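Wait, can you check?
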Amino acid sequence: MPNTRYRRGGLYAADMAMYSRQIQSDNSQEISRLKRNLIRALQEDVTSKQRQMLLMYYAEGKNMREIGEIMGVDRSTVSRTIQRGERRLQRCLRYGAETYLRSMGNL
């Protein structure tokens, strides 16, 4: 059975290139809105300890052992704290941020 995906040859590649450019431009607004929501959620919806550990882990690239040494806690505590912060952010971004930001007039 021939591979029908490439049956159109060059035309298919050109169509896909044009489609990917259109999708990319559509996604830029969504990505910028998601970044704004994430920053607001980090500021308002996670505890200060969760925020500090999340930033060290994702922004500074530290591993959980290093964070534990800096914060004076066990690596497993760092892991649990990061997981709880991630869940709070996910919940906020999924359910609460859109409604909250609309009420504030930011969307």
